[in-house]
Amino acid sequence: MPLGLQIIIQVVFSFAGTIGYALCINIPRRALVSCGICGMLGWMVYWFLWRFVGAGKVASNLIAALIVGLVSYWFARTKKMPVTLFNIPALVPLVPGATAYEAVRALVSGEFVNSIRLFLMVIMVIGAIAMGYMVAQVLIDIAKSMQK
Q1: How far apart are CA 57 and CA 128, in angstroms?
Q2: Beta-carbon count within 10 A of 71 CB
Q3: What is the per-residue pLDDT across 107-142, written as a single tens digit (0 to 9) for each?
Q4: What is the DSSP string of the chain?
Q5: 45 exposed, middle or buried (CB, 10 Å; 0-12, 13-18, 19+)?
Q6: Considering only Cβ atoms within 10 Å of each terminal Cβ, which end of the chain, N or C, has fewer?
Q7: pLDDT computed for residue 77 by the predictor
Q8: How many other C-beta atoms can be found within 10 angstroms of the C-beta atom of residue 97?
Q9: Separation between Cα atoms, residue 60 and residue 62, nearest integer Å
Q10: 24-25-26-28 Cα dihedral, nearest 10 degrees
C-alpha cells in the first residue's frame, strides 16, 4: 500500500475513532473537532515514531501522550473548557486494546510465556501513557509558574 494512502487512513480513522468515543461520553459538540484533532495528532506522533523512527511502542506512546497532554491543554485554553474534555478521548487511540486481547487469548490457549510477555507490554504501554501525560502536566505547571 502506498505511503500516502497509509497516512490518509491513519489520519481519518484516528480522528473518527476519537470523535466516536467523545460522542459516547457526551463531550459537548463544540469540542468534538478539537478532540478529534488532539487524538489524531497523538496517534500520528505514535505511528510515525513507531513506524519510521524505529522507537519502541513504549517510547512512542510516552511521546504521543506528552503531545496529547500539551495539545489538549492548548485547546482547553482556547475554547475555555476543562482539559479533561480533550485529553480523555484523545488518549483512547493509544490504549493497547489489541495487545491486551492477544494476551488474554494466549493465556486461554495455554501459551503462558507469551501471555506474560504481552501482559507486561500492556502494563508498560499504559505506564508510558500515564507518564507522558504526567510530564505534560508538569511542563504546563512549570510554564505557568514562570509566567507569574
Answers
A1: 9
A2: 22
A3: 999 999 999 999 999 999 999 999 999 999 999 999
A4: --HHHHHHHHHHHHHHHHHHHHHHTT--GGGHHHHHHHHHHHHHHHHHIIIII---HHHHHHHHHHHHHHHHHHHHHHHTS-THHHHHHHHGGGS-HHHHHHHHHHHHTT-HHHHHHHHHHHHHHHHHHHHHHHHHHHHHHHHHHHH-
A5: buried
A6: C
A7: 94
A8: 11
A9: 5
A10: -110
Q: Is the C-alpha dihedral spanning 63, 65, 68, 74 positive or negative? A: negative
Which residue in this structure is represented by grid cell 478532540? 35
The tens digit of pLDDT for each residue in 3-19 reads 999 999 999 999 999 99
| Identity at 52, one-letter amino acid code | F
User: Is 90 exceeded by the pLDDT of residue 147?
Assistant: no
Spatial contact of 43 and 64, defined as CB atoms under 8 Å apart: yes
